[in-house]
Amino acid sequence: MSNSGICYLVGAGPGDLGLVTLRAKECIETADVLIYDALSNPELIRWTRPDCERIHVGKRARDHALPQDQINALIVEKTKAGLRVVRLKGGDPMIFGRGGEEAAELVAAKVPFEIVPGISSTIAGPAYAGIPVTHRDHNTQLTIFTGHEDPTKGYSSIDFAQLAKTPGTKVFVMGVSRLREITGAFIEHGADPATPIALTRWATTPSQSSIVGTLATIADIAEKTKFSSPAVAVIGTVVNERAKLNWFEKRPLFGKRIVVTRTREQAGELSKSLRDLGADVIELPTIRIDHPTDHQGFAEMVTAAHEYDWLVFTSPNGVERFFDAFFQAYPDARSLGNPRIAAIGPGTAKKIREYRFAVDLIPEKYVAEGLVAAFKKQSIENQTILWVKAEETREVIGDGLAAMGAIVDECISYRTVPETEDPTGARAVLEERGADLITFTSGSTVEHFLNLGIPWPEGCVAGSIGPITSEVLRQHGHKPALEATKHDIPGLTAAIVKYFKKRKAAD
């Protein structure tokens, strides 16, 4: 075998990012080339290195961007070129994913490969719909089959006569377009027309939806509700367990599409909290953090930080930039001396503690005015204060502290600039599918989002982290439907849950 390269046949899981294996993540992060299908979760693509070549080959229902034989040739070509190739496939590559065919091509080409299994939608989909595919009260046998066969065979190899009399649970995928034909074949070969059946589409994602019926009624239900693929179907009395085990679709934000406009680095905390509550999150960063214009001046102020009585931080970004620069200059944390440290809110304080420094002052209200009010309880006349801040901020803190007799120096640690990259196609998703809520965590996220020129989605509302952000929204003609009482991510999340709960009660 040639050692010029290697191809990993990787299962991407059923859609929920939390169901991707650690090995799959490792492969994606180190890939030279990523060859991927129409994935249920495009966020996986963001795990690639900036220099990774990303090739979309389609493959969903009848929409194939590249025929299978050309995909086979492509993975062989790239691997032979000495590259680390990841062939990323939804679910598990070996369960109706044609992974076996692709592995055979790699064997024939005498190139190294590795199979990285993934969680299959045939198991995960029913579980997220509250349906256990095995249950001692219902079955001791599980059968999995595909509803979509190779159309070039000219015949069907599905033995419906055998399937109809086989005991236990039956699960099939890729069969929505043939649903009436499949259920009819079961009934024709002796299956009880009253046998329960459930279909779940976009399983394990916030877009998940399910329908339940019987072999006799499900095709009519699917047509009436315009139920479409991709979906997994479960046949058997285990479907009855859904009535009490349906957990995923009952979460407080399930079915709500929410846009997160924070920087790509900061979006994670808010996105995770919303996804954990069932929301369909679109990460659309409108800004990114860049070096300050006067990079040398920033570095000089950081190295002189030990000379100050107070360090004041007003954002996690400022904290991160400050301490990264500090530890480039000093290998010992004790070089910071003994200044007292103030943080504008718990999020900023948390970031400071990550660097193993204590926080001496956090205001009751997590805004600039609140921080100034908190300092009025301190004696800071003639004390020196280094205010670590962004390039474009209000002067409330500097002016307020100076008015109390403090000597304030501004340490500009970063600036916000428009985000120009959109690797997951979030803008197109928002324009095509709309949203229920767009969240804003600063005035700059408001301004940069509106500068994108994306039409405001019909029926969509704005959510604000605090009064300053709300004021910027109003200035641009968008009255926020909700504003966090506590001006941090947990506070914003709580406000979102409260808003949708109230709206649901009113419907």
Integer count of domains:
4
Low-confidence stretches: none
CATH level-1 class of the largest domain = Alpha Beta
Give the strand line-up of the largest sheet: 3-2-4-1-5
First and last CA, distance = 65 Å
> Can you tell me the CATH architecture of the largest domain?
3-Layer(aba) Sandwich
Rounded mean pLDDT score: 91
> Percent range for helical residues?
25-40%
Q: Which of globular, elongated, flat, extended, rod-shaped describes the shape?
A: elongated
Number of helices: 18
Estimated share of beta-strand residues: 15-25%
Largest sheet: 5 strands, parallel
What's the count of strands? 20
Provide the gyration radius in Å: 28 Å
Task: Describe what this molecule looks like in 3D.
With 507 residues, this protein is α/β, with parallel strands linked by helices. The chain has four domains: 6-119, Tetrapyrrole methylase, N-terminal domain (Cobalt-precorrin-4 Transmethylase, domain 1); 123-250, Tetrapyrrole methylase, C-terminal domain (Methyltransferase, Cobalt-precorrin-4 Transmethylase, Domain 2); 257-286 and 419-506, Rossmann fold; 290-418, Rossmann fold (3-Layer(aba) Sandwich). The chain is built from 18 helices and 20 strands. The protein has helices at 22-29, 68-80, 99-108, 121-128, 160-165, 179-188, 218-224, 242-245, 267-276, 295-303, 316-329, 346-354, 368-375, 396-403, 426-433, 443-451, 467-475, 489-506; strands spanning 6-11, 33-37, 53-58, 84-89, 113-116, 142-146, 169-173, 196-201, 209-214, 231-235, 257-260, 280-283, 287-290, 310-313, 340-343, 384-390, 407-418, 437-440, 461-464, 482-483. α11 links the parallel β14 (310-313) and β15 (340-343). α11 packs parallel to α12 (346-354) and α13 packs parallel to α14 (396-403).
